[in-house]
């Protein structure tokens, strides 16, 4: 056993209202520089939809992630042999058009346009070329307008759905969508790290945050191609790739990352997981239907004395172990099993988990009356508007079992709380439902509390980074204190 | 007398001491590619009894700066250039007044001999056989190596009926070189000591053997008899081969990178517009 700690995340999709505050918070802090205009380290997608970049989930085209070949894991996009032949051109590189061409507006036009019969408008100007452009797409095109006929119907997760199910998704009065916020998953088996020929990408030992060394990056862009979630971006101005850093400067000072901090719906949870690093490869090689369980199995119980002893032996700090015991992520993923990894079939073992969203009951419209197929407000989850198969493609590697389990438990919790607060549902029925959903009253209460009544400190259990210990390894803390603070990254020196 | 002066003295005396020996060596290194003494003209004239044709003062001046003499419009110098089919004698490196006079002395001495050591290449008059022509062709193509390691003709020259893509296009077509250089002796001399700026530096170090020159002459005599020029078909072939090669190369690249990323969003939008 090789116990390590990882800062992991849960996004509760049932609570996401799609306000994009997270995206803006991230943009304002990290990606409002030249060369990063098109980057959204955090973006919110509307599902069904093709996302950003367009159809990123279609690995036949983007060649991201891992595949098993003769029992070995290997990258789809590159390898030791392949990279030699692709040394002058990376054949799996997305173009800017597949993200979108970033633009601003020429606001002068609003004031300076000559008088005419129509309203003046601010004309869009490309932030790359400075030319006037016709906007072809944007980072949230599915939602903005975009003609969702084109975009929503080409969602790769619709694979395996019947024509009827597809039609049901977009029929008027049955229309359904949900939001899917995405950041870097800080994977256990990151394809970007494996792909980098320069060794610029690394997974931080102390908390598993995947970072990209700007001084080592040589602009091969293998990481951009290899990441199946397309969460590494190439800065065309600096000639270096960049990615979400999970706001590590904030984490190190005990603050939640900006997107977490600003989340209006309070959908985001952050906490430490302990995992067994020796079993990563074994888990990633399992067939798709076993992947979710395999990943769960390498996440270790932070209360288990054996695990604690091994963690200590590996240099995991006592405070981190305590933090892991309080981790909301551990509850969602391992205890309640209602948070699932996105597209685990890509083989990267993402450490950001999603609680799948509940959706309204199906309805048909006849004349002016809308008829719900189910009389129950809390209908059978198999009859919800988002087909189970769609959610299974997104969160279950195409297999419905784990997704159905998570949704049934969520539904049972709702029934239970209905019985408690409204009382129009007999408690016996609610308890029966909880049993059927593999849950108990205590668990339902805990899920309810962490979902609905959670405070800042419940949601974000950030382990101390012990920077003082890191500093002590390099220099005397007294000396460091004198040179720290605001100022130059490389200070002024005497001489030319 | 200090050491510096001693050195100067030695430098001044030494050439005088070994004069004749040194001049002969200099002649062998720099003159024989174009001149003989009593062996008939090559690119440059036969130098036998040159002292009787022009006075030593003129000859010394010419030796030291041939191009200058031509530029000054000297009638005899111009005549010499014409006889050499326009080739101008190069200004030999290391030439000075003392050396020029030594060379003239050497020529005078050699002229008096019945058979000078610089009589040059004497080429056989025997009639050429089919085998000679074949061997000549093999040398031209480079399938038979040249004895002294010179490069084969084909690397720069072409000629008619060479087959394949023909030869190089850097230098003239040699199909009728036999006519241009007026016969067996002149051509052989040229081959033995080519005087163009491109060939000279190469073949000075790797000269053709007398027999090799003869075999090449056999080839050129034969090709001149047949007449014609290297036809443009080879050129056309080359063009089509290059075109075909480029197409096949591109197709191979396309196949090798078949799974490369092509645009996703644009075709998606365009495709939906078409089916609507």
Give me some keywords for this one.
heterodimer, A: 496 residues, alpha+beta, Alpha-Beta Plaits, 4-stranded mixed β-sheet, two-stranded antiparallel sheet, 24 helices, globular, B: 276 residues, mainly alpha, Cytochrome Bc1 Complex, Chain D, domain 2
Average pLDDT value of chain B? 82
Rg on CA atoms of chain B, Å: 28 Å
Summed up, the domain count of chain A is: 1
Instruction: Bin the strand percentage of chain A.
Output: 5-15%
In percent, how much strand structure appears in the residues of chain B?
Answer: under 5%
**Total number of β-strand segments of chain B?**
0
Distance between the termini of chain A: 54 Å
Question: pLDDT below 50 for ≥5 consecutive residues: which ranges of chain A?
Answer: none
Q: Total helix count of chain A?
A: 24
Helical residue percent of chain B? 55-70%
Strand order of the largest sheet of chain A: 13-12-1-14
Sequence stretches where pLDDT stays below 50 over 5 or more residues of chain B: none
Fraction of helical residues of chain A: 25-40%
Give a verbal description of the structure.
The complex is a heterodimer of chains A (496) and B (276). By secondary structure, chain A is an alpha+beta fold. Chain A is 35% helix and 15% strand. Chain A has one domain: Alpha-Beta Plaits. In chain A, a hairpin with a 2-residue loop joins strand 3 (66-69) and strand 4 (72-75). In chain A, helix 18 (388-395) packs across helix 19 and helix 19 runs antiparallel to helix 20. Chain B has three domains: 3-112, Orthogonal Bundle (Cytochrome Bc1 Complex, Chain D, domain 2); 130-226, Cytochrome Bc1 Complex, Chain D, domain 2, CATH 1.10.760.10; 242-275, no CATH class. Chain B contains 14 helices and no strands. Chain B has helices spanning 3-17, 19-30, 50-53, 56-64, 66-71, 75-83, 97-112, 130-141, 177-180, 184-192, 199-205, 210-226, 233-256, 265-275.
